[in-house]
């Protein structure tokens, strides 16, 4: 039996309850991520040469977990090199739907809180890569880029549908409507840029 969405919606959460825990890397010369070791510190400089990551917590939970409103998956599942998969969930009817607006504001404010913790200002705000995507041609409303965790040759995502008992990740078509449980656990620095990926845990196709 599939695991169902938890419906921890953005209206039940407050970005003011976010906490960020700083970690330094013990040895930056180690290239394999799984071999690296880290230790916790009280505060961190964003330009520290041994910057490890920020752990994103919500109250006492070691991650931020939220259920989206029903959104459109614009392009289906996209492979982005190697074993990296993602999808874009559209903030449909953003200005008319108060639930969608609440979720959009929550995502945006979460990113702002992270930038504040990192000490980013208007002068270097471009170092933080937002996962909110805007269409350059202004045809589509903004969307949220979501990562689909994939490890050991399988997706670490539960999927269920209102209209079929036999669905899989690759049966998701363009503009498929869905609601998802997402989580954020860490903020990483790569090539002097900071990334806070929204990762998918559960997909409910509607």
The order of strands across the largest sheet is 2-1-3-15-16-8
Count of distinct strands: 17
What helical percentage do the residues reach? 10-25%
Span between termini: 17 Å
Average pLDDT level: 93
- Element-by-element helix/strand order: EEEEEEEHEEEEEEEEEE
Global shape:
globular
| Sequence stretches where pLDDT stays below 50 over 5 or more residues | none
The radius of gyration over CA amounts to 18 Å
Helix count, DSSP H or I runs of 4 or more residues: 1
Counting helices, strands and paired strands, the structural category is mainly beta
Tell me about the largest β-sheet. Answer: 6 strands, mixed
Proportion of residues in β-strands: 35-45%
Question: Any descriptors?
Answer:
38% strand; single chain; 6-stranded mixed sheet; mainly beta; 5-stranded mixed beta barrel; 206 residues
Q: Overview of this structure, please?
A:
The protein is mostly beta strands. The longest helix has 21 residues, at about 100-120. It starts with 17 loop residues before the first strand and ends with a strand. The model has no long low-confidence stretch (mean pLDDT about 95). It is globular, with a radius of gyration of 18 Å. Helix content is about 10%, strand content about 40%.
Per-chain topology:
Layout: E1 18-25, E2 38-41, E3 51-58, E4 64-67, E5 71-73, E6 78-79, E7 85-90, H1 98-118, E8 128-129, E9 132-133, E10 143-148, E11 150-151, E12 154-155, E13 158-161, E14 176-184, E15 186-190, E16 193-195, E17 198-205
Parallel strand pairs: 8-16, 10-17, 13-17
Antiparallel strand pairs: 1-2, 1-3, 3-15, 4-14, 5-7, 5-14, 6-7, 7-10, 9-10, 11-12, 14-17, 15-16
């Amino acid at each position: 039996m599939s695991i169902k969405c938890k419906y921890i919606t953005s209206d039940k959460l407050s970005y003011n309850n976010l906490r960020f825990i700083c970690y330094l890397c013990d040895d930056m010369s180690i290239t394999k991520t799984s071999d690296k070791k880290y230790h916790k510190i009280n505060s961190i400089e964003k330009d520290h040469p041994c910057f490890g990551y920020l752990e994103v917590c919500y109250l006492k939970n070691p991650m931020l977990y939220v259920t989206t409103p029903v959104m459109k998956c614009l392009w289906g599942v996209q492979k982005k090199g190697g074993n990296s998969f993602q999808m874009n969930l559209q903030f449909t009817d953003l200005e008319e739907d108060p639930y969608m607006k609440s979720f959009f504001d929550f995502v945006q404010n979460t990113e702002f809180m992270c930038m504040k913790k990192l000490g980013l200002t208007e002068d270097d705000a471009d170092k933080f890569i937002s996962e909110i995507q805007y269409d350059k041609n202004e045809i589509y409303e903004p969307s949220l880029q979501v990562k689909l965790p994939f490890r050991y040759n399988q997706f670490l995502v539960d999927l269920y549908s209102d209209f079929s008992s036999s669905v899989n990740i690759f049966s998701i078509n363009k503009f498929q409507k869905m609601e998802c449980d997402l989580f954020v656990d860490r903020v990483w620095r790569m090539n002097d840029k900071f990334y806070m990926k929204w990762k998918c845990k559960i997909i409910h196709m509607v």
